[in-house]
Design brief:
The complex is a heterotrimer of chains A (327), B (312) and C (281).
Chain A: E1 3-7, H1 8-21, E2 23-29, E3 33-37, E4 62-69, E5 72-74, E6 83-88, H2 90-106, H3 110-117, E7 119-124, E8 147-151, E9 155-160, H4 163-171, E10 177-178, H5 185-188, H6 210-215, H7 222-226, E11 233-239, E12 246-253, E13 263-264, E14 268-269, H8 274-293, H9 303-306, H10 314-319
Parallel strand pairs in A: 2-6, 6-7, 7-8
Antiparallel strand pairs in A: 1-9, 1-10, 2-3, 4-5, 4-12, 8-9, 11-12, 13-14
Chain B: H1 2-32, E1 54-65, E2 68-73, E3 84-89, E4 93-98, E5 107-112, H2 116-121, E6 129-136, E7 149-155, H3 159-171, E8 179-185, H4 194-203, E9 205-210, E10 222-224, H5 227-234, E11 241-246, H6 249-261, E12 269-272, E13 288-289, E14 292-293, E15 300-302
Parallel strand pairs in B: 7-8, 7-11, 8-9, 9-10, 11-12
Antiparallel strand pairs in B: 1-2, 1-6, 2-5, 3-4, 3-6, 12-15, 13-14
Helix pairs in contact in B: 5-6
Chain C: E1 14-20, H1 26-32, H2 35-44, E2 45-49, E3 62-68, E4 71-73, H3 74-86, E5 87-93, H4 95-99, H5 111-118, E6 127-131, E7 141-143, H6 150-162, H7 173-179, H8 204-207, H9 224-233, H10 238-249, H11 254-261
Parallel strand pairs in C: 1-2, 1-3, 3-5, 5-7
Antiparallel strand pairs in C: 4-6
Classes of the chains: A alpha+beta (327), B alpha/beta (312), C alpha/beta (281).
Chain lengths: 327, 312, 281
């Protein structure tokens, strides 16, 4: 992998240059840390990971699939203006990878692809786990970025991870020095982030300890809205008042934690019990996705725990489970 | 059909291998030439938007029962028995409807008025235009039937996808052996496909049950009770039989319990699952049963694939 | 449900009326706040009666009647029963109509306590126990909220005009709140009822930094014991919790009182809140 070096001063200048020529999106601290368009480089927040995931820029909260007038259908235009994301952590980069698998390999979702094609992903490596809830070290995360920045105190080490990253480097090569130093595997590990001790939760499905989590679950859906990998949605039509024959078909984020999620005609709800829904989320993250795509979907960012009103720490619950126990 | 099925199989394995190949490529690439690996974008072209339906003409409307009707649509497309399409009424919404015919010239959709979209669909008549995308899903494994008898168990609206199986067998009669139909309805008012059942009765063994008492007498054998009662009185043996089941969740559960009692193996039972669906292309998660998408991996499942159905 | 009329036929437009009984007229205002689309509304439905904005109101047979407010005296009841008789579908509009809301608080106090303070001629008041609409007549649909979201009313009207049966919004406020990028107010120590309250309001209160008081009523799936425990963990006493939960849906949530008195509510449960407790009253 091509490795580059950058003094901190040059790094700042690089960001300035980036924001001059592209829309630059990076974590900003408001009430909470979230990704937003950057006007001033000083606004970029480096200490904590963003409270809200970056997925909303690719898989949007609300997306117009098409507009219609009677039976005539009009496909929306896809944006192709390039933009740069800076400061995406390793977990979120892998979350993007997992969403890529769903939207681009599993299916062919043009809305997602358009947003992804126009984006450069510049990562920022965590030198230590930014939150007490992190557990990315327990999951098989890979290098998945256009460029990755490793903060080494007075300088940055930069890895190029793709053709796109290479192209961006060539455009801004003046800001980088070549380096012979390679980033070692142990440097890519994030200390203090391997809390989840159980590799395969398949046999634990009937464990009575799930109740610990279920009892303090409000089924509010905050976890799924904050999850960087969750990708479920609803589709519905919205019509215009002036002409109810015309309108748009819209998709919006949904949540598997809601009873309506599995309601069919005739009012039958397949996952009516809170426990079923709770377990469905955890199993989809750690088990089902692996079965289908060969990798666990969860990336261990800990947002669903940090953002839960009751802080359900499913990692701890799973760790404390004894195998073989059944209800 | 064999061809279609093997094609389909190929398609499926092709997709799978594509994914595994892609990930393999990535791994090997990272060892050899890291720069070439492209994590960001697979260069998949946006050839068609899978969310956009196309308009088709309705060529026939037939009222089956007071709240059930069959539309015949001028949609010339190859499909397997058991597959479904997404039907849209702009402004109202979209819903999955299984194809209940077997023809390359048209598709038939049997619809019960239960929701907004189906109520709007019931107003369509010959000559109207509807928007459809599809077909989607994995249908009934017709190649599995070679050398076996087929038992078709349907309840209420669940008979609709099974009609495509029966039509298919009729179109390829020489390839298949005995066919036994056990169809259950709530009352004689709820019987769908009356015309077709009269035809089937001439060719296959047909047993019908009504939950309520039987009032009218139609030419075919009909008894009060549930499909499971008919199964018991028929003394079904498990040898060389494949069972296709479709119906409401309660019926499926009881039928499976009954079949297990009779010693049927899991891989002899195929059920067609019903779930809430939005995208039908394996993303939106609403139709997920224990990690399997009803829209892509189903709607027809071999029982051992989704054994824990009752808990999810 | 009867087949709804299609909007395509202009002679067959749905006949719609908006009426208010005892209430603050806020919900009717909520309809009017849709200024941009209000004139288009007349193209889609036949607005037969809306005494709040219309001079000529025809009081005959309606397809849909929207009633704001609750029954507080005999006049209200008379109006309500007449409306019910004249319409195919009756829609309870707003929290008063759906659950009783603030005016129903009169139930929890004695008449002698306030009567002499408010009214000169006491003998003329023909008051009844304040009760929501569906205590007296059948309500077909409910549009909750104090006031309801103006978009929601419009969507309801659009829906019925094109033959789409309106569905209640049953997911909790939290899900919209997180989508809107808000900080969880429970984490700040505020007694927010979002997790057990049905959304559809686009989390408007929390967007403005104000906690949810549950005006749209509880979700069917709420975890009430946990919610009460969470509020207790944050240092709120039972009287406060009970009053807060009862504010908007008091008459429809006796389960709160029942639960607060039960043994089950006694147990402590750590829901990890280490912040500073603050009262916002």
């Amino acid at each position: 992998m091509l490795t580059l070096k950058q003094e901190k001063k040059r790094f700042r200048e690089f960001l300035e240059a980036l924001s001059d020529s592209y829309e630059l999106i990076a974590p900003v601290k408001r009430e909470l840390v979230k990704f937003d368009a950057i006007k001033n480089i000083n606004d970029i927040h480096f200490e904590k990971n963003s409270y809200f995931p970056v997925k909303e820029f690719f898989f949007k909260k609300r997306e117009v699939l098409f507009t219609f007038n009677g039976n005539r259908i009009l496909e929306p235009k896809f944006e192709n203006k390039e933009r740069v994301f800076f400061g995406i952590r390793k977990c979120d980069l892998n979350a993007i990878k997992h969403q890529d698998i769903v939207f681009m390999q599993g299916a062919n979702d043009p809305y997602y692809i358009a947003e992804r094609e126009r984006s450069f992903l510049l990562g920022y490596h965590c030198n230590e786990a930014p939150s007490e809830y992190c557990f990315c070290g327990s999951l098989e995360l890979e290098d998945y970025f256009d460029m990755m920045f490793y903060d080494k105190g007075d300088h940055m080490l930069v890895e190029i991870g793709s053709e796109k990253g290479m192209a961006l480097y060539k455009k801004f090569s003046g800001f980088f020095e070549k380096s012979t130093r390679l980033i070692a595997q142990h440097e890519k590990k994030i200390p203090g982030a391997d809390r989840l001790k159980v590799k395969d939760i398949g046999p634990l499905y009937d464990n009575p300890d799930w109740k610990k989590g279920v009892d303090i679950c409000l089924s509010c859906g905050a976890c799924t809205a904050l999850c960087p990998t969750c990708y479920c949605f609803d589709i519905h039509d919205e019509v215009k008042m002036s002409n109810p024959g015309s309108g748009e078909r819209v998709r919006e984020w949904s949540s598997c934690q809601l009873p309506e999620f599995s309601r069919v005609a005739g009012n039958h709800v397949f996952r009516n019990e809170r426990e079923q829904r709770f377990k469905h989320r955890i199993y989809h993250q750690l088990d089902y996705f692996k079965e289908k795509y060969g990798i666990q979907m969860c990336v261990g960012c800990g947002r669903c725990i940090e953002g839960c009103p009751t802080r359900i720490d499913f990692v701890q619950i799973i760790n404390e489970m004894k195998e073989g126990e059944k209800r | 059909m064999k061809k279609a099925n093997s094609n389909k199989k190929k398609r499926k394995t092709a997709r799978k291998s594509k994914i595994s190949k892609a990930s393999k490529n990535k791994n090997s690439a990272s060892r050899e030439n890291p720069i070439k690996k492209s994590p960001a974008i697979s260069k998949k072209t946006r050839n068609s938007n899978p969310y956009i339906p196309k308009p088709y003409k309705v060529i026939d409307y037939h009222k089956e029962t007071p709240d059930n009707f069959t539309l015949t649509v001028d949609m010339k497309i190859k499909h397997d028995p058991g597959q479904f399409v997404q039907v849209s009424i702009p402004g109202i919404g979209e819903c999955p409807i299984s194809i209940c015919s077997d023809s390359d010239e048209y598709i038939q959709l049997n619809i019960r008025e239960v929701g907004n979209v189906t109520r709007a669909l019931s107003k369509l008549r010959k000559g109207d235009v509807i928007l459809i995308r599809g077909p989607y899903g994995r249908g009934y494994p017709m190649q599995y039937l070679n050398g076996n008898d087929v038992v078709v168990i349907g309840g209420g609206c669940g008979v609709a996808p099974l009609k495509s199986v029966i039509d298919y067998i009729e179109n390829h009669r020489a390839d298949y052996r005995n066919v036994l139909l056990i169809l259950g309805y709530r009352s004689d008012e709820d019987i769908i496909f009356k015309r077709e059942i009269a035809e089937w009765d001439k060719k296959y063994k047909v047993h019908m049950t009504l939950d309520k008492e039987v009032h009218s007498h139609i030419c075919y054998d009909m008894r009060a009770g549930f499909v499971t009662d008919a199964m018991n009185s028929l003394h079904l043996s498990k040898d060389n039989k494949i069972v296709f089941v479709c119906g409401p969740p309660v019926m499926i559960r009881n039928v499976i319990a009954n079949l297990k009692e009779k010693g049927f193996n899991d891989d002899q039972i195929f059920i067609s699952a019903e779930r809430l669906m939005y995208c039908a292309i394996g993303i939106c998660c609403h139709c997920m049963i224990r990690g399997k998408y009803t829209c892509v991996d189903g709607p027809v499942f071999r029982y051992d694939e989704i054994k824990e159905l009752k808990t999810d | 449900m009867e087949k709804l009329l299609q909007v395509r036929n202009p002679d067959n437009k749905l006949k719609v009326g908006f009426y208010g009984i005892t209430g603050c007229a806020g919900c009717l205002l909520s309809v009017i706040f849709n200024e941009d689309e209000l004139l288009d509304l007349i193209k889609v439905v036949d607005l037969k009666a809306f005494p709040f904005v219309k001079e000529v109101n025809v009081d005959e047979s309606f397809d849909y009647i929207f009633v704001e407010g609750l029954v507080a005296d005999e006049d209200d009841l008379e109006v309500l029963q007449r409306l019910r008789k004249n319409s195919k579908f009756l829609v309870a509009l707003g929290a008063c109509s759906c659950t009783g809301c603030v005016p129903a608080y009169r139930q929890f106090t004695l008449k002698e306590n306030y009567e002499h303070l408010l009214y000169r001629k006491r003998e003329e008041i023909k008051d009844l126990q304040p009760t929501p609409v569906d205590d007296h007549v059948r309500a077909d649909y409910y549009i909750p909220g104090c006031p309801p979201d103006k978009k929601e009313i419009l969507n309801f009207l659009k829906g019925i005009a094109i033959g789409k049966e309106p569905k209640p919004y049953e997911s909790p406020v939290c899900i919209e709140c997180r989508k809107n990028g808000n900080q969880c107010l429970l984490d700040l120590g505020k007694p927010c009822l979002g997790p057990i309250t049905a959304g559809g309001c686009n989390s408007v209160c929390i967007n403005g930094g104000f906690e949810c008081w549950g005006c749209r009523g509880p979700t069917k799936d709420m975890n009430l014991p946990l919610m009460i425990k969470m509020l207790r963990d944050r240092g709120f006493d039972d009287a406060f919790i009970e009053a807060r939960m009862r504010t908007f849906v008091g008459l429809k949530m006796p389960i709160v009182e029942e639960f607060m008195k039960s043994k089950e509510a006694g147990g402590k449960l750590d829901t990890k809140f280490y912040g500073k407790k603050e009262y916002f009253e």
